[in-house]
Amino acid sequence: MKITYIWLKEYIDFPHSPQELGEALTESGFEVEEVIETIKPFSGVAAGRVEQVEKHPDADKLSVCKVTDGTETFQVICGAPNVKAGQIVPFAKTGAMLPNGFKIKKAKIRGVESFGMICSKEELGLEKSSDGIWAVEDDVKIGEDFYKYLETQQDFIFDLSITPNRPDCLSLIGFAREVGAIAGGSIKLPEASIKENKSSNVDSIIKIKIDDPEGCPRYAGRVIKGITIAPSPLWMQERLEAVGIRPINNIVDITNYVLMEYGHPLHAFDLSQIEGNEIIVRSSRPKEKFTTLDDKERTLPENTVMICDSKNPVAVGGIMGGLNSEVTDSTTDILLESAYFKPERIALSSRKLGLSTEASQRFERGADPNGVIAAINRASALMQELAGGTVCEGICDVYPKEIKPHRIHLDHNKINRLLGTSFSLQEIKKKLASIQLAFDGSDVVIPTFRPDLKINVDLAEEMARLVNYSNLPVNTVTEILFEQEQPYLEYRNSFIRKTMLELGIQEAFSSSMLKESEAAPFTEEEFIRIMNPISDDLTVMRPSLLPGLLKSVNYNLNRNIPDVQLFELGRVFKNFKGDKLPEQPYSLAAVICGQRSVPDWSNSSSEIDFYDIKGYLENFISKISLDNSKFILYDKSSWFSDQETIALAAGGNEEAGLCGKVDPQICRLFGIETPVYAFELNIDILSRYFNNERTYKPVPRYPYSERDMALVFDESVLSGDVLKYIEKTAGKLLSDVFVFDIFRGGSLPDAKKSLAVKMRFQSHERTLSDKEVDKLFHKIIDKTCKEFNASLRK
Questions:
Q1: What angle do helix axes 172-183 and 250-262 make, rounded to 10 degrees?
Q2: Which fold has domain 2-38+156-183?
Q3: Which CATH class is domain 196-398?
Q4: Segment 380-395, tens digit of pLDDT
Q5: Which site in 87, 255, 489, 724 is 20 to 30 Å from 304, CA atoms measured?
Q6: For residues 760 and 706, is the Cβ–Cβ distance under 8 A?
Q7: How many other C-beta atoms lie within 10 A of the C-beta of residue 354?
Q8: pLDDT tens digit string along 491-542?
Q9: Which band of pLDDT confidence, cut at 50, 70 and 90, is reported for residue 581?
Q10: Nearest-angstrom CA–CA distance, 65 and 90
Q11: Any idea which fold 488-689 has?
């Protein structure tokens, strides 16, 4: 939003300089991004008179001019087609410095010397593009410093960032209200003096019908006849250009001018193009198409507000007019629209159409439903004055259900508690009255141009803004206990993340929405579909975390990062029955691929395998103290390879997750050719078996004793089952046990394998004797051989 200093002064008188005003607005809660001078400094440019113009002897498009500054005459080469003898022009002498930093130097052009330059408005930084030199029509003294001459017309442009909750400030009058609250004084609203033609009543010319009162609660129209399409006055063009609006013609420029004044969008229709002299406001029809003013045919989203005549649509309500009813050079009669549209409807249609305009930005934030008449009268008066139009008597104003100002009970004690202040009721009322809030007893009557004020806290915020935030006391009025007990779910998830990070795996975050083809391999259930997906790639809820992690693996591999270790903790979505919400358990998944370690001079590289992902899972289980768990072979269909898959059972036989090699076909679906290993766990199931009672055990003071054994087992025997049995048999004196070698082949029969197990025995109370350890060791060998039908390896 841009406003100019001089234009603002027409509505409110205030003592602040441009810089002071910018600071005051910032302190009152508005973000002033920049204050820009309309006339940028330059030097060495004087008012000159062109004495003589002759054709350049060696260039058809150049002229050799004689220019005087009243004291001396200079020869100047000029390429502008509009240069003529007798013109008063801005003349930059040799050594002059222009606003863009360009310094004028003596030059020779096609063999003829030039001692300066005749300037255009573009070269003086007054407009973006000029067709020729600036022939000054005002009375200016020859030789006068041209910057000092222009300085009297200096203006300042305020580039403001308006928050979405303040639609009233998308206008000069809205800002005048704010400046009035800062500096004091009353707003001077622009005059709207209209001489209506009593012999021509608007009701006999146009009929308006609202078939969609929810989308368009109010629609008003005026008819102006006998207008002449022409350029708007220079002062209007300059003001519009200053705030970033391109002038078009007097009618369109007037609607834009009033838009900037009142913040209320208007639209002018060519009345001769309105079939049946009737306006019907309705919702769009299925797959309806419409060609907007930018000459693009658009398929209208469902529930778009449409402005129609008796046969066809003529505008997309609140967004853009139609090509079939635009004002052209041959237009003589105007139907002027001023309406109020429901913000939610405009915002949704604008987004779906991909079409954002000055009008839609204001309507979707909330224009003033009771500002309709003031805006249409102001524009009608300007059309009468600047386009020679005759305004027909009356306004066709269809307003089925009046939108009235709402009320907020004023609790001045609550405001003081919130701000830490001690304002009296009268002081609060005086401040709020400065922004045109009225009072009815203990209620504040909120005008319809302030849709952001809804509750008492909003009034407290207005008070803080109006007295200046820096003037509020700094004393603490409320004690806040920052150390609050962390909910168990947050504690649990934080602990799991910390544990995974300690294992050296990086955390990833992925979308909970997937493409259907990505989700398909990870569920046998019906997809949980999204009713209004924002993209064709986000149509179903994820049944697993692995699709997102596999996409992350693909992303890394495509960027030449082959070694990947990632995990994610988040909800997955399952078992949707239609009448109830789907199950949303927390899941933990990890994926790894690439090399086991970084190769260097001391070791060669090796590819990760199934035992790496199993090792990560075992370490995770150990760190979370999941005591009652075991691995079991998994022979059901899943997204893991049939040959390398195990399941984790917790609390006996409750399946809590899978671990293994991701099926290569699924990897290829995600563009991955390298082997990927993963696990995925149901954390909600696991957490039921967490051992949360952790106690510190000191490092034993007594030495340990180790024994190794190698037993031959059937191939089907799981090493995990063997280790668990050894732990159970050995009792408390066994401090650690692990497999350090697996051997197959050689002298061993087929379907047999040798497991070499190391056992560490240690007591916290005494030193164990060799005899005691040997006895326990042999007991373990005997019982293990019997339990698993094993034998000592020879």
A1: 30
A2: Phenylalanyl-tRNA Synthetase; Chain B, domain 1 (3.30.56)
A3: alpha beta
A4: 999 999 999 999 999 9
A5: 255
A6: yes
A7: 7
A8: 899 999 999 999 999 999 999 999 999 999 998 888 888 888 888 889 999 9
A9: confident
A10: 14
A11: BirA Bifunctional Protein; domain 2 (3.30.930)
Q: How far apart are CA 301 and CA 284, in angstroms?
A: 7
- Residues in a beta bridge with 752: 714
For β-strands 640-650 and 654-662, DSSP reports them as antiparallel
Q: Specify the amino acid at residue 399.
A: Y
- CA 181 to CA 467: how far, in whole Å? 10
Across the range 475-484, mean pLDDT stands at: 65
Structure tokens at 525: 């259930």
Q: Are 109 and 65 in contact (CB under 8 A)?
A: no
Asked if the model's pLDDT at residue 469 lies above 90, the reply is no
CB distance 514 to 547 below 8 Å: yes
Domain ranges of the chain: 2-38+156-183, 43-151, 196-398, 406-471, 488-689, 705-792
Residues 6+ apart with CB under 8 A from 444: 407, 408, 409, 410, 432, 437, 438, 459
User: What pLDDT, on a 0 to 100 scale, did the predictor assign at position 585?
Assistant: 93
User: Cβ(311)–Cβ(278) under 8 Å?
Assistant: no
- Relative to beta strand 218-225, strand 396-398 is antiparallel
Please give the CATH topology (third level) of the domain spanning 406-471: Phenylalanyl-tRNA Synthetase; Chain B, domain 1 (3.30.56)
CB 650 within 8 Å of CB 687: no
Pick from 625, 628, 626, 546: which is nearest to 593 by CA? 546
Helices 250-262 and 234-242: crossing angle in degrees, nearest 10, is 50
Q: Can you give the pLDDT at residue 606?
A: 85
- Which band of pLDDT confidence, cut at 50, 70 and 90, is reported for residue 692? low
Contact residues for 143 (Cβ-Cβ < 8 A; gap 6+): 46, 47, 48, 69, 70, 71
pLDDT at residue 596 tops 90: no
Say what the pLDDT of residue 673 is: 94
Would you say residue 614 has pLDDT above 70? yes
Each residue of 756-769: pLDDT tens digit? 999 999 998 899 99
Phi-psi region of 652 (alpha: psi -120 to 50; beta: other; left: phi over 0): left
Q: If you average pLDDT over residues 714-734, what whole number do you get?
A: 90
What is the pLDDT, as a whole number, of residue 535? 86
Q: What pLDDT, on a 0 to 100 scale, did the predictor assign at position 642? A: 77
Query: For the domain 705-792, what is the CATH code?
Result: 3.30.70.380
481-484-485 Cα angle (round to 5): 160
Residue type, 717: V
Q: Where are the beta strands (DSSP E) in 98-179?
A: 107-109, 112-114, 117-118, 156-161
Nearest to 467 by CA among 416, 407, 409: 416
Q: How far are the Cα atoms of 30, 187, 270 from residue 184, in angstroms, in the given order?
A: 18, 10, 43
Residue in this structure with the two tokens 């386009």, named with its chain if needed: 387
**Which helix H or strand E contains 375, and what residues bound it?**
helix 372-386
pTM: 0.60
Tokens 């059972």 locate to 649
Provide the pLDDT confidence category of residue 478 given band limits of 50, 70 and 90: low
CA-closest candidate to residue 671, choices 548, 554, 565: 554
Q: Count CB-CB contacts under 10 A for residue 300.
A: 21
Selection from 398, 264, 268, 256 nearest residue 335 by Cα:
268
Are 2-38+156-183 and 406-471 equal in CATH topology? yes
Q: Write the CA distances from 654 to 573, 587, 615, 727, 756, integer angstroms.
A: 20, 15, 21, 22, 30
Structure confidence by residue, pLDDT tens digits, 409-441: 999 999 999 888 889 999 999 999 999 999 998
Answer for the pair 425, 412: CB distance below 8 angstroms, yes or no: yes
Bridge partners (DSSP) of residue 600 are: 603
Could you list the beta-strand ranges (E) of 145-262: 156-161, 196-201, 207-210, 218-225
How is domain 43-151 classified at the CATH fold level? OB fold (Dihydrolipoamide Acetyltransferase, E2P) (2.40.50)
Question: Once rounded to an integer, what is the mean pLDDT over residues 45-68?
Answer: 92
